[in-house]
Write a structure and sequence with these properties.
Helix content is about 15%, strand content about 30%. The protein is built from 1 helix and 4 strands, in the order H-E-E-E-E. The strands form 2 sheets. A two-stranded antiparallel sheet has the order 1-2. Strands 3-4 form a two-stranded antiparallel sheet. Strand 3 and strand 4 form a beta hairpin. The protein is elongated, with a radius of gyration of 19 Å.
């Protein structure tokens, strides 16, 4: 019974720490260069109940952001390559680009 209570207590405590309601705001496209096939995009990302631990593990939540595009007159969506150089994340935040 003690083991079941411990598992239940851990599960309930984790339910209260879920980040939720992710919101993308102020999306904009500018600086399109058709020769280099590039464009500048900007947007804000926020969510409720964000968390970070300060223990040895340094765990924190995050959001995966990806951008897709398609050429006019086509139905084929493609993934964009993201370059974050020259951008500054909000205080306490970090931007990491995953290479696949």
């Amino acid at each position: 019974m003690k083991k079941i209570f411990t598992i239940l207590a851990l599960t309930c405590s984790m339910l209260g720490t879920k980040a939720n309601n992710i919101l993308v705001t102020n999306a904009q496209i500018s600086g399109q260069n058709t020769t280099n096939n590039t464009a500048l995009i900007g947007f804000g990302v926020s969510w409720e109940n964000s968390w970070r631990t300060s223990t040895n593990e340094s765990n924190y939540d995050g959001a995966w952001i990806f951008v897709k595009f398609r050429k006019n007159g086509t139905t084929d969506w493609r993934h964009a390559t993201i370059n974050v150089s020259g951008n500054t994340p909000a205080s306490g935040a970090a931007i990491t680009v995953s290479v696949t």
